[in-house]
Specification:
The chain is mainly α. Helices cover 76% and strands 2% of the residues. A two-stranded antiparallel sheet has the order 1-2. Helix 3 (59-82) runs antiparallel to helix 4, helix 3 runs antiparallel to helix 6 (156-186) and helix 4 runs antiparallel to helix 5 (121-145). The longest helix has 31 residues, at 156-186.
């Protein structure tokens, strides 16, 4: 580590100490707790439900949409935890700061099902608004009461427009990609 500037070396040492402390706490207090088990169930059970109801004829399209949602929710969660807008006292993995079951399962699956079943923009946006309201003012407060999610410099109402914006922008993006793909496949 001799080629690392001293100021960066301090950050590396602090990060190493923080990671060790996080692992110790996770092993001692989080792993095998009821909250950890709940997160494990939330990480896997929705996928079983989704597989039963997903339109297999549109599987590639729906999965691509889900991956857009997953990537964005994961990125935004990483940013929010890094900016100390919120934190997660309980999480599935010690060294992963995000709430994996929510970013990788609950949010993408919900959005994929809305995308699949709400074909018109009007019903899609209406359903997104309802989902955003439930996530912002019901699910987030429940996770807070359970001690899994702790907002620091964040209010639940800040989440509402983000959920809606993510859903609208990602459907618009996917429809654009599909339009280009269809146009170019017709040219062949």
């Amino acid at each position: 580590m001799a080629d690392i500037p001293e100021s960066l070396l301090k950050l590396v040492i602090m990060h190493e100490a923080f990671s060790k402390a996080r692992i110790e706490v996770w092993n001692a207090e989080i792993l095998w707790s009821w909250r950890w088990w709940l997160l494990i169930v939330l990480m896997f059970a929705p996928w079983i439900f989704w597989w039963r109801f997903v339109d297999k004829k549109r599987l590639t399209e729906i999965c691509l949409f889900g991956m857009f949602i997953l990537a964005t929710s994961s990125w935004m969660d990483e940013l929010g935890t890094e900016l100390i807008l919120w934190y997660y006292p309980y999480k599935t993995f010690a060294l992963y700061p995000q709430l994996v079951p929510i970013n990788y399962t609950v949010i993408p699956i919900t959005f994929m099902l809305v995308y699949q079943y709400k074909k018109s923009w009007k019903t899609y946006i209406f359903t997104l608004v309802i989902i955003a309201a439930i996530y912002s003012w019901v699910a987030e407060p429940i996770l807070n009461l359970m001690g899994i999610y702790k907002p620091i410099n964040w209010k639940y109402s800040y989440s509402f427009p983000l959920y809606v914006l993510i859903g609208i922008s990602h459907r618009w993006l996917l429809e654009g990609i599909l339009r280009v793909t269809r146009k170019n496949s017709d040219d062949i």
